[in-house]
Amino acid sequence: YNSMDESKEYNLSLEVVTDGEPVRSLCLIKEESSSEDEYSIVTGSQGGLLSCLSVPSCTTSIQPGGDGTRHPHNITSLLSVESGGYVSGCKDGVIRIFDGAHSFSGELKGHENAVTSLAWLPLSRSDDSSPDKELLLSGSWDGTARVWSLSQMECVAVLGGHENTVSVVGLPPLDGSHGSIGRVATASAGIAQGNSIVDHKVRIWHISPSAGSYRAKLAHTVANDHSGPIRGIAFDPHTNHLLTCSNDATVKIRDLQGNCLATLNYPSDGSEPMLLSLTTLHDAKVVAAAEDGHAVVWDLVHHTHRLIPHPSTVWTVLALPKGDFATACHDGYTRIFTLDATRTAPTQQIQQFQKASADSKAKSNSGPTPEEIANLPKWEMNALTQGRSEGQVQIFNKNNKAVAAQWSDVSKTWIEVGEVMGTNQNAGQIDGVSYDHVFPIEIDVPGGGVTSLQIGYNNGENPFVVAQKFIDDHMLDQNYLSEIADYIQKRAGADGNTPTLGMTDATAAAAAPTPMDISTNTSTTPTYQHLPFTTYRSFENGTEPKVFNKIINKCCEFYDQETASTSTTITKDHLTTTLQTLSDTLCATNRYHATSIPNSQLTFISKLISQWNIQHVFPILDISRLIALHPDASKMENQYIWESIVSSTIEKCQQKKLDPTSVQGTTAAVAIPMISMRLFTNCFRGGGGSLKAVSSHLDKILDCAELFAISENKNVRLSVATLILNASSYIKSSSAGTTSSTADHILSIVGTIIGSGLYESEATVRVLVALGTLLLADDSIKVKAKSLHMSSMVDHAGSQHGEKAKAVAGEIQLILA
To answer: How far is CA 787 from CA 536, 747, 748, 792, in A?
Structure first.
């Protein structure tokens, strides 16, 4: 995606501050036909206040329903009611209902923790026994989603078994569902395992009537295709797609079974902020809220993007009429953005907003100014300042330094936490000690309070050691270890990974303290920084049209040689037409979510791999490598075709082994092992069909890897290393487990590779990570590795290939200890 044309960019339309507290939630409500305004936006603040903003008059009303409508904690979600009014979700776990006059009309209780997501589920057929036209959905930190009937004012179904925070959205009902009411999509934030957050899942549920109530049945599950907790979920009625956003700074576009069709990456130079919520606009645009203080807009038609800086964290985004959208910001402002020049704010107001955003970023690097510190309440007078609730944080001036203090409701006193420092690109001091990074952490405590602390970290330190010391110093729950370490990695950018933070609904702000709501569902097993590897690597180069055309030309050249030596029913026109069509599809990577590859084309490629000579088949294998990454081509329904592709490719590898003279001195001598290894590697990363095919032939594929492991070509060596890495990741993550012979096979190949001393640093790191991942899959594998005396081999390999190799080798030693 490229940057948007400036003439078509979103600009500020209006901005309003209500109660001054961070704005955490938004919803759109209709205005009466007699009103001069077109619509109103209800806002929910961190302080528990509801406000109403009317557009375009910009009239605001704080607590429009009166004093009795104030919530006791954060208003974490809002949802409008079609007939008038709205519903709120609060950190106290209660859902509250308000009528069109903003008056409180009822509440729903059942969740055991904060309600962070609300949505409607439309019913697919009329039911004379129920006046409900739609059901209310709610998602919570308690790991459940609930289905509510507003006519009965009770919960009618519980969708349990989620991994911490749940986001919900209603989907269109199934066609011809024969009594099925509809579909619900839920997304979970995952659980801590080792040094990462895993098991974040998208689930599709079918909701059916049952004995006067409703029954929920899990229909589909997609796990771990984000590399971090899922923070938001949305349905686009214009494209019939499901969308999710995550701490990994991506948005995934999905079909209605949850399968990923395309990924939208955060447009930056290496920054990977958490994306907290998302929405879609009617003109094929996706908008997401980012914790680093941006709203990001992707235009799916023109393949462009736009970052809109804000003075602080953007908590949520809301689609508005006429293609506009609103943002809820931590600085207390609700802002509306538009493409329509007639609704754009005055130039001076836009410039002030842009300056505030720029100043906020600069301020976060420098800390409070002397003037700001002088205006803070004096520490000596803190006894006269009464806290509002347990855990409230207040900044004081103590000896001309800004210090943070936490209110204790029990002792009725302020407890000093530490000095408020500027980051200077994250550098700072705590208690007189300098650190490369100083990060704020807010830890939720029982009763809705917040403990605000600072943690110092120096480059090169083990985040888990730092996190453990922090826990000991502040007497925190040991279960926080993994998440604090993940948070350090996320903010410090350690090792280029994408570590994640936040089981629940809070995150970091560019110019504000970093809220950190920590789950207690944390693994008590040993944790590692680099292990295990829980995803799949791939080889994606070759989708540039010029490169693909070279592959097509090579295929056409070999076609002439093939037809000269053997008879074939394939015409050259058929070959070129099919390959060019594939090129058009595969080179448009940003359209994978909307394109498909017919089975006829996939079968055609499979047939060529089977029939062509070993000297000529490698460009066809290269095309197959790219096809494996297309979600439609590699889907589960195409497993039988991938079985054929994988089997034929294995035969080519075995042919090279049995008759090495057949390719001696030709390009195929290197191309066959390199491309076949990369094809198998990409099959792991592809869809269910290619994954199933490659896993069912894993032992034969490992035979091929062992054959090529000691190659003289570094590209072949890297390909073998990456295949071994993906195979180990598959074994670690596969619920079906693996045979001991398969694990022994990988251990043997790893031993051969490490013992050879041929592999370059990157390939060696991949092999070491593969070994460590495999060791964590089963204790029996660990026992086998010890019997092979792999510890000394690993230690030597790690010492020869840089700091990361050394770190991974050290973690393997801990596993084997």
So the answer is: 28, 11, 12, 12
567 Cβ neighbours under 8 A, 6+ residues apart = none
Name 665's Cβ contacts closer than 8 Å, sequence gap at least 6: none
**Is the C-alpha dihedral spanning 122, 243, 509, 519 positive or negative?**
positive
DSSP secondary structure string for all residues of 592-643: GGG----HHHHHHHHHHHHHS-TTT-HHHHHHHHHHTTSTTTTSGGGHHHHH
Q: Is the pTM of this model over 0.85?
A: no
Using CA atoms of 393, 395, 398, 403 in order, give the dihedral in degrees to the nearest 10.
Answer: 70
**Per-residue pLDDT tens over the stretch 100-142:** 999 999 999 999 988 999 999 988 654 445 567 789 999 998 8
Q: What's the one-letter identity of residue 528?
A: Y
Report how many helices (DSSP H) and strands (DSSP E) the chain contains, helices first.
18, 39
Residues in the chain: 817
Digit-coded pLDDT (tens) for 462-473? 676 777 778 767
For 451-482, the three-class secondary structure string (H helix, E strand, C coil) is: EEEEEEECCCCCHHHHHHHHHHHHCCCHHHHH
Query: What is the dihedral angle through the alpha carbons of 486, 288, 506, 172, rounded to the nearest 10 degrees?
Result: -110
What CA–CA distance (Å, rounded) separates 123 from 170? 10
> 3-state DSSP helix/strand/coil percent for the chain, to nearest 5?
35, 30, 35
The sign of the CA dihedral 464, 469, 474, 478 is positive
Which secondary structure element, helix H or strand E, spans residue 541, and what is its range? none
**Rounded distance, CA 23 to CA 692, Å?**
46
Q: Which one-letter DSSP state was computed for residue 562? A: H
What are 489-534's pLDDT values in tens digits? Answer: 767 653 323 222 233 333 322 233 333 333 333 334 566 788 888 7
CA 276 to chain CA mean position, Å = 10
The rounded distance, in Å, linking the Cα atoms of 812 and 419 is 39
Residue 196 DSSP SS3: strand
Could you give the residue ranges of the DSSP H alpha helices within 631-739?
A: 639-658, 668-685, 688-696, 698-708, 714-733
Question: In this structure, are residues 99 and 86 in contact, taking their beta carbons and an 8 Å threshold?
Answer: no
Going by the DSSP 8-state scheme, the letter that residue 138 receives in this structure is E
Question: What does the alpha-carbon distance between residue 783 and residue 177 come to, in Å, rounded to a whole number?
Answer: 52
- Read off the DSSP letter of residue 141: T
User: Kind and range of the H or E element at 485?
Assistant: helix 481-492
For residue 371, the cross-strand partners are none
Contact 393, 382 (CB under 8 A): no
Residue type at 754 in one-letter notation: I
3-state secondary structure 39-56: EEEEEEECCCCEEEEEEC
SS3 423: coil
d(CA 803, CA 807): 6
How many other CB atoms are there within 10 angstroms of residue 129's CB atom? 8
C-beta separation of 698 from 650 below 8 A: no
Q: Match 């099925």 to its residue by tokens.
A: 180
Q: Is 732 helix (H, G, I), strand (E, B) or coil?
A: helix
- Left if phi > 0, otherwise alpha if psi is -120 to 50, otherwise beta: which for 367? left
CA gap 275, 315 in Å, rounded: 9
For every residue of 350-381, which 3-state class applies, written as one string? HHHHHHHHHHHHHHHHHCCCHHHHHCCCEHHH
State yes or no: cis peptide before 532, omega within 30 of 0: yes
User: In angstroms, what CA-CA distances link 521 with 192, 247, 480, 706?
Assistant: 7, 18, 9, 41
**pLDDT at residue 307 above 50?**
yes
Give the tokens for residue 325: 């959208």
Q: Count Cα atoms within 13 angstroms, Cβ side, for 393.
A: 24
